[in-house]
Amino acid sequence: MLPFIYLLVIALSSSCIGYAERVELFWDIGTLNISRDGYSTWKSICVNNAVPIPPVHVTQGDVLVLNVRNSLDTPTAVHAHGIYHNYTDYYDGAEMVTECGIPPGENFTYIIDTTDQVGNFWLHSHIQSQLTDGFRTPFIIHEKVKPVTYDEEKLLYFEDWDLRSFDDQMNIYSKLNAKKIPIAYRMLLVNGMNGNVTQPVVFEPGKRYRVRVVSLLTAFWLKFRMPGHTMHIIDQDGVACNPVEVDGLDLGPGQRFSILVTAHDTVEYNYKYNVTLYANFVNPLPGIIPRYYNGPIEYHQNAPLKHIPDVEDNQLSWSNTLDLQARDGMPLLPVDRQIVLSIKQFTPELNIPVYTFGDYAYNHTLVPTLFTALSMGNLAFNSSIYGPQTQAHVLHYGESIEVLVYSDNLNDHSLHMHMGEYQVVEVGPYGDAVANNRPAVAFQRSGSAPMRSDVVTIRSFSYIKLRFRVNHGAIIFFHCHMIHNFKGLAVTFIAAPDLLQKHMKVPNEVIKMCKLQNIKTSGNAAGNAGFDLTGLPQPLLVNHG
């Protein structure tokens, strides 16, 4: 089915953003009964009755105007993953964190200014069931001037795809003891469809390509290689780095890279790229997990395939954020305050596991956290008004924050921060990995200009140190980008609430979406004055013992 998306590009001039283009999209969010993996058929999230959702391309400085109609039977929202949203947090798409979501049958417009960013990002629902069911697509902000020399670009984006919808999975899980939950072995989609029948990547002899590799995964990891070709990483998560040669990319949910690849000088052979879909929370099962996929790299449609011997993963060099240096040379930040988070797992009887960063599992409040910060005056600096289930930490303007995360959990986790990037500073071992049949994580520290990222993998039985500076007011949602976000693994950083109150004016359209759902837009987490949290649902206090 051909995508049906209206696209308007209108020149505009503004004292705020200078000369730019207004790129206007109209998205009608619905469902479409379709088989995307070649095995199962069920209702996928679609845009304008089309699947997959076409990638969105703009140029730095453009203003993306995304007009959304919600034709689903539940609320929806669109998160622009990796975008700063300076004082426009209400367009961040994090339901009940920075906005109320779009009710069924309603329209809402997101306005995204790309003045300060370039690179590979993505658009997706922040409602877990919709993200898993296909509400996701790349969002590419092209530079006005190429940062390095290359001839053409290629885009490869990857999704993990289950044999049933998210809600169907939850219905099954809720009826089973957690120890008896069946494993959902996922398939891989490449550029929207079955990973083994995707269209070829076409190379012309001698050309240099920028290959954008985007992980839209929600639960699994992947390894990507182009055997017979040399790969150099030039950016990660929208941050440029000094070029680093690698044999392959190891991507967790939400991570993105650009690599430079120079084509061979002749059309004598065709090649294949390799993708391995894997996860450490399921035991290997031959032919099932890991899953292996190959895609064609085509020089000539009649050329034979070049045979390249397999090499064991441990003999190859893989992407590692700590090996990268930020191209702008931004030095290692000092530490004004350290926030310590510890990933824990709790399994209630006859229920699915819950993951937390502390004593409480994250859950939504009755008032979006942004509106609490905006409406509570000086009390906005008191973390208790945001409710214990938000695990709120209040940050001050100018502070350099180090987030130290420990995990003695059996699972890897993909940690995402909204509204900016953190420096990835250090990793090391924590707990007894070997005794739990997990590989030990080696100690490693960043260089003098640490790479910045908005997503990083914390391996099981390890710790990681991340640093960022509070340079504007924001509601910063920090969470696992896997299904564990749905299960409680999130905290909220309230950055400079005084600056939020000074500089932010919430549009009436945003308030309207809340009123239509009878959601309060002022008061503490319960919608009350002061410290009165009466009416706030009791948070899940997790017993880690």
Query: Helix segment count?
Result: 5
Summing up helix and strand content along with how strands pair, one would put the structural category as mainly beta
User: What is the CA-CA span between the terminal residues?
Assistant: 53 Å
Task: State Rg.
Answer: 23 Å
Write out the strand line-up for the largest beta sheet, numbering strands in chain order: 12-11-10-14-19-16-17
Low-confidence stretches: 1-18, 178-182
How would you sum up the global shape?
globular
For the secondary structure, the number of strands is 33
- Please estimate the helix content: under 10%
Largest sheet: 7 strands, mixed
β-strand amount = 35-45%
SSE blueprint:
Layout: E1 6-14, E2 18-34, E3 42-47, E4 56-59, E5 63-70, E6 79-81, E7 107-113, E8 119-124, H1 128-132, E9 136-142, E10 152-161, H2 166-174, E11 187-190, E12 193-194, E13 201-202, E14 208-215, E15 221-225, E16 231-236, E17 239-246, E18 248-251, E19 256-262, E20 271-278, E21 291-298, E22 337-346, E23 354-356, H3 369-375, E24 392-395, E25 400-407, E26 413-417, E27 422-429, E28 444-445, E29 452-453, E30 455-458, E31 462-469, E32 474-480, E33 490-495, H4 497-503, H5 508-515
Parallel strand pairs: 2-5, 4-9, 10-14, 13-21, 22-25, 24-33
Antiparallel strand pairs: 1-2, 2-3, 5-7, 6-8, 8-9, 10-11, 11-12, 14-19, 15-18, 15-20, 16-17, 16-19, 20-21, 22-23, 25-31, 26-30, 26-32, 27-28, 27-29, 27-31, 32-33
